[in-house]
Amino acid sequence: MCLAIYYSEIDQDAYHPKRTAMPWGENILHNGGKYSVVIPTGLANGEYLLRHEVLGLHVAGNLMGAQFYPNCVQIKVQNGGSKTLPSGIALPGAYNPTDPGILTQLWWYSPSNTSASYTAPGGPVIFPGGTGDWGAVQYGA
Question: DSSP string of the chain?
Answer without folding.
Answer: ----EEE---B---B-TT-TTS-BHHHHHHTTS-----PPTTBBSEEEEEEEEEEE-TTTTSTT--EEEEEEEEEEE-S-BSB-----EEESSS--TTSTTTS--GGG--TT-TT-----TT----STTS-B-HHHHHH--
